Amino acid sequence: MQLGRSLPAPGGVWRLLAVWCCLTAVAARLEAQQPWDAGCDSCNTQAVGHGEPCAACGTGRAACGTGRCWDEGGWLRGGGTWGTEPTGPGSGLYAPGLYWIGPDSHWRDNCPQLNQYLPGYYRPVYGGNLPRWYVSAEYLALFRDSDRTLPFASLGPDPDNIVLSTAGFNADFQSGVRALVGVQWNDHVRLEGSYFGSYTWSDLASVNNQDPNDLDGTGNLFSPFTGFGNPADPAVDFNDTAVIEYTSRLTNAELNLRHRLLVPPGHFEASALLGVRYMNINESFGYLTAFDSGLTNQMNVETSNDLIGIQLGLLGQWLLTPWYWLDWEIKGAVAHNSAGQNTLAELAGDVLAGGRDEDTTSFIGETSVVLNYQFRPSLTLRVGYQALWVTGLALADQNFETSLPSLFLGPARLDHSSDTVYHGFNIGLVFAR
Prior knowledge:
Elements: H1 10-32, E1 69-71, E2 74-77, E3 81-82, E4 133-146, E5 151-155, E6 162-165, E7 173-184, E8 189-208, E9 221-222, E10 241-260, E11 268-290, E12 296-321, E13 324-347, E14 350-376, E15 379-393, H2 404-409, E16 418-432
């Protein structure tokens, strides 16, 4: 029996895209249900979101009708029902989304027509108050994809007839939560702390064979310790069962200073990021084989990676409508990695315990694309996709020593040259005040 690589079903990807499209369609429908009122061009109001304020007109509450507007008294929505949202100092305008409100949050004296808020017509973003603080909570599903596949059993003494390898693991998305807390220092600086984890991926793969072998028994599964029977060793080859399993855990924490860049007034904003990033990746890999006699060989490898480094990033934001904007962010960190591995083996009747620790350099790269919809003055829905790439890692399966002399005589080996990609979708809410 041969186990092939199990990939996520194509339908799963289409389902994720369908959920994204449905959420966007629902948000667009909710926005369409809020009627525009041309009478608002003569009152001291503003459409909810990141529109352009009117600062030098009359109060004109009645003129707003059922429009979705701001007024000096608070938030007016549908049928003249006044909300209790907080107001900004002296202005009554408060639009605390994570999109930068406008250059220096300055005011404009004119009152634009409301059709200027429609896509392709509305004016660039000016005025309003920046959020004093904000928190976000997101559901984040990640898929783990390592860079190499290793063989662990062949059928017969043939290295080209591999029936068990790490490709047999069933890779899947794992669910987690990402939380972020931010504080607005001024019009240009924000301090943010974020965390996501603890993610755990695990799986087991096995193969059985009951064919007669050259030892007058059953089982023709050969091990990697002899190069899959070249030459064969009765102490580790001629197995009837082979099993491999792995577990991988990921935790991430960041503290970043975000500085708004000076760009021409318009529908685009950009900010640079400088901070500290910590990441922990721990793994374990187990190997077990059994003979028809009931005897077993087994080996377990555990690795650890503690990464910490300085991080730089860049965020671009495109305002699509007064309530929608798109975020595209890239981040990179050069990190110090305290890597290590520990091996415990019981092979051919001998027991071994050993390991090795080394300091090395790793790189962490991340990119994300997120669609934001501010459906309430203080609430924003976020839906997006992110990819995280980490290099210079000590992965457990890559530190499985297949040379018996090296394993028992030493010195212990540590391989920290592996790469891993984590990617997946996120959906969540931001609350800003």
